[in-house]
Structure formats: C-alpha cells, structure tokens
Amino acid sequence: MRAVVQDRYGPPGALQVTSRGVPEPRDDEVLVHVEAAGVDPGVWHVVTGLPYGVRLGFGLRRPRNPVPGLDLAGVVVSVGRGVRDFAPGDAVFGTGRGSYAEYAVAAAGKLAPLPACLTFEEAAAVPISGQTALAAIRKARGVAGKRVMVIGAGGGVGTFAVQIAKAQGAHVTAACSAAKVDYVRSLGADGVIDYTRSDPTCAGEFDVVIDTAGNRPLTRLRRALSPRGVLVVVGGEAGDGILLQGFDRQLRALLWSPLVRQRLVPLMATQNSADLRVLAGLIEAGGVKPVVDRVFPLHEVAAALEHISGGHARAKTVISLT
C-alpha cells in the first residue's frame, strides 16, 4: 500500500510516500480502506517533534509510529475477533493509527458510521476537531441562553465550537482574523470580532470563553469573563515555549482555578464512538456542517501540513486518497 512515512522528527518536507505492508487489526480493531484523512495541528506536532514535550508521548528519538495521521474516513475491510459493531463494507469515520496511508487500523471504540449526508472528505474533517469542540462546550456545563465567546473561531476546533454552541441555544460571539470574518459570520455567529483590530478580551463579560488560539495570557482572558464565568483553554499551538509551546497555559489554568471565583478549565479531548455519534446527529439534523478549506492528494502531504502550520487555514484541511 502507499503510505506516508517518517523515520525521524523534522520539517514536513522530510516525509516520504513509499510502499508498506497492510497492517493487521488486533482483536478490538478495524482495518479501514482510507478514502480521506484529516490534517490536524496535532499531526504537525508529531511530525516535527515540537514542542519537545510531544516526544514524551510519541517517541524520544524518533516517532514510535512511522506513519502519521489520525482522522480518517473510509470503508471497513476487516474486523478483529472482538468487534461486533462493524462489518466489512461499512462506511465509517473516526480516528486511527497511521491514517496517511491507503489502509489504517483503528480501535472500534473510536469509529462511528459515516453520516449519509457527508462525503468522505467532509467526514474526515470531523473527528478530532469536532470532538474537541464538543468537549469544550460540555465543560461549560450548559450553554443554552448564555453568552459564549469563541476565540480562534475560523480554525478547525473553533468552526465546530461556534456551530455546536449555536445549536445548543447560546448567543455566540466569534473572534477570528480579518480574512475569516465573513466566513465565520456565515456559520451563524451572532457577532464577529476581527482580533487583529480589536482585543476580544475587552468585548464585554461572557458566561463562557473558549480559547482555541493559544496565545493570550490567562489574566487577559479572565477579563472577558463574568464573575462566575468559565474559561476553557484548548491547545496551545500559538505559544513560543520550546518545551511545552503554549500548552503550559493548561497547567496554569489547572493550578489557578481553585484560587479564583471563575472556573478555568484546561482541555485535552479524547476520542470515542459515542461523541462521534453525537456529532453525526448534529450534522444530520443540520445544526453543524463540517467545512473543508482545501483537499490535497497524498503525495502533497508536506504542503498540506505547511498549509495549516501558520494558523491561517480556514476550517479543516483534508488529504484525499482516492
């Protein structure tokens, strides 16, 4: 099979498309013929090995899994002995190991049936970003009737967060760059702030602030909260620390939250079938629509990763294997 392979950490240009054997699923896994794979900032971190803290989980000297990629959508080829929910021929989406290949294995508990209304490319844009946004909304413990601000609303997680919050009855203010203002407004945001011209933390008091941009100090973000508001800190791609980049904000939020009246919540989302099915329901009901910015062929995987690395991509970027 064709697969993207990395034998060391480094720039995306070091990735190679080569031929590898088809992986074998374990008892609780599914072998998927991959039709499309999502391009996520997490993959960029694993490919580059930056910040260095990433290597503690994925291999100190080189990536433990030589084939990158997590998000996928495709068709089940075979299933492990313990799998009961899927059968060969089923169209699925979710997360797996090494999705930048023609075939990938995935835990059955991290897959769900492909919504009939989505293409494979659209479905591949959903798993990690959609589940992260859903988890962020849940951390607020209900957003119906509340004032919610999403910072970084034009990115993968932010796009879903705006739509999910609106679908659950929130009044949503979205902050994004100038180039994404019209697009974010089209997602249903009640108000949009160009954060290159106005500081979103000075936009008033919000019941919930979801920050996906990763580059604002917690002290500034707290200014945008009501006295009992909730701040959900997602990721940290925009930070500049060599060890943890912006992810040190997660630790500070955890330590600081017990000392203040506001609730500061660090978020590292997990992937599971139940949340994928919730997202599928929202999509089928018309409340949420995955948006694909660009589609790259497999041999242009380096260009796809470079496209998202600066945070300028709109919504999601996808790799097509068809």
Automatic annotation (TrEMBL):
<dbReference type="InterPro" id="IPR020843">
    <property type="entry name" value="ER"/>
</dbReference>
<protein>
    <submittedName>
        <fullName>Zinc-binding dehydrogenase</fullName>
    </submittedName>
</protein>
<dbReference type="InterPro" id="IPR013154">
    <property type="entry name" value="ADH-like_N"/>
</dbReference>
<feature type="domain" description="Enoyl reductase (ER)">
    <location>
        <begin position="10"/>
        <end position="319"/>
    </location>
</feature>
<dbReference type="Pfam" id="PF08240">
    <property type="entry name" value="ADH_N"/>
</dbReference>
<dbReference type="InterPro" id="IPR036291">
    <property type="entry name" value="NAD(P)-bd_dom_sf"/>
</dbReference>
<dbReference type="GO" id="GO:0016491">
    <property type="term" value="F:oxidoreductase activity"/>
</dbReference>
<dbReference type="Pfam" id="PF13602">
    <property type="entry name" value="ADH_zinc_N_2"/>
</dbReference>
<dbReference type="InterPro" id="IPR052733">
    <property type="entry name" value="Chloroplast_QOR"/>
</dbReference>
<dbReference type="InterPro" id="IPR011032">
    <property type="entry name" value="GroES-like_sf"/>
</dbReference>
